[in-house]
Specification:
Elements: H1 6-19, E1 22-27, H2 32-37, E2 40-42, H3 44-53, E3 58-62, H4 65-74, E4 79-81, H5 97-106, E5 111-115, H6 120-123, E6 128-130, H7 135-140, E7 148-151, H8 154-164, E8 169-171, H9 177-180, H10 184-193, E9 198-201, H11 208-216, E10 225-227, H12 230-239, E11 244-248, H13 253-260, E12 265-268, H14 283-292, H15 301-316
Parallel strand pairs: 1-2, 1-3, 3-4, 5-6, 5-7, 7-8, 9-10, 9-11, 11-12
This protein binds 1,3-dihydroxyacetonephosphate and iron/sulfur cluster.
Iron/sulfur cluster is lined by residues 64, 89-91, 117, 176, 178-179, 250, 275, 277-278.
């Protein structure tokens, strides 16, 4: 990679993606420079939908590995590239194929629901896939008598169980180290620093579950608290009449929030909430991917065909 200057690099990326007919999809946690050159920026569900819809034959996916795998499964005739193959996810690493098979064996009649933050192999063993924006509706779509194995995120799982009132959900004890690292103390400190602020929480946060009990018991005074996916947070921040927000998720989301709402103030619940996997992608690596057509993410056909059933069910439920 020879181009040094950021805006020159962005110009080159824009020229190359047009010349090579590549669409760039970027997750809301990507660095600002990548969000600026992306054709679409969004949450896991929105990007999965875009991957299925776009005309281009090549997708350059700026996010983490499982997201690119999902795009490859949905669009088997497209080439899916990632800037860095090492960009993984601690949450998707929190359950192995052997552990899932064993869990299913112990609960042979249960329906398995897995968060989209899972490997393609895990998805091939699921009945339903879900994202943070449709997890509640996916669980509601399952007959009430059926036991559910929900994986891998325990915070999202307990949030969904609470919202649906399901007593027969078994929840895997996995977590995302970034969201689990946002503590109730971080939150209290930030909320106290901005008295009029609304509070937006991603359902993967460790503060989610205690917050829901607090909310149900009428604490938090009159403060408005909303539990939302990353794209849900962006839509809410835009539509709300409130001017100040404390945001409990990865800090990358603040770039688009501030860009879309110049008159509003956004504070991260924790300044340390940064996903080092998401941040492995750089403009230099995006440029190199376009020049060298690397790194391609592929999923073996027999795994993709099984995983697609669970993903299609996810895409069908909003
Ligand atoms: P969203 O589905 O809300 O974009 O979240 C994805 C993710 O990786 C959260 O850490
Ligand atoms: Fe995975 Fe957490 Fe990073 Fe999201 S923020 S990609 S769940 S490690």
């Amino acid at each position: 990679m020879l181009v040094q200057d950021t805006s020159k690099l962005q110009e080159e990326i824009t020229r190359l993606k047009k010349q090579k007919d590549v669409v760039i999809l970027a997750h809301n946690y990507q660095i600002p420079g990548i969000q600026d050159v992306a054709d679409f920026t969004g949450d896991s569900l929105g990007l999965s939908r875009q991957a299925a819809k776009v005309d281009q034959k090549t997708i350059l996916f700026c996010g983490v590995h499982f997201m690119a795998e999902t795009a490859a499964i949905i669009s088997p005739n497209k080439k899916v590239l990632v800037p860095d193959l090492q960009a993984g996810c601690s949450l998707s690493d929190s359950i192995t194929l052997g552990e899932l098979k064993n869990w299913k064996k112990q609960n042979p009649n249960a329906i398995t629901v897995g968060y989209v933050n899972t490997t393609a192999e895990i998805k091939s063993e699921l009945d339903y896939c879900c994202t943070s924006s449709n997890a509640v509706n996916v669980v509601k779509a399952i007959p009430e008598k059926k036991d559910i194995l929900f994986l891998p995120d325990m915070f999202l799982g307990s949030y969904v169980a609470k919202m649906t009132g399901r007593k027969n959900m078994h929840i895997w004890a996995g977590e995302c180290h970034v969201h689990a690292g946002i503590t109730p103390d971080d939150v209290t400190e930030k909320l106290n620093s901005m008295k009029e602020a609304e509070f937006l929480i991603h359902p993967e946060c460790s503060c989610t579950t205690p917050m829901m009990y607090d909310l149900a018991s009428g604490s938090y005074d009159d403060r408005k608290v909303s539990i939302l996916s990353t794209e849900g947070m962006l839509n809410h921040a835009h539509d709300s009449a409130t001017k100040n927000f404390v945001v409990a998720t990865e800090t990358g989301i603040l770039y688009r929030m501030r860009q879309q709402n110049p008159g509003k103030t956004f504070l991260p619940a924790s300044d340390k909430a940064e996903c080092q996997y998401m941040k492995m992608n750089t403009l230099e690596k995006v440029y190199d991917s376009l020049v060298e057509d690397k790194y391609e993410v592929t999923v073996p056909k027999e795994i993709a065909d099984k995983a697609r059933l669970a993903i299609d069910r996810m895409l069908a439920i909003s």
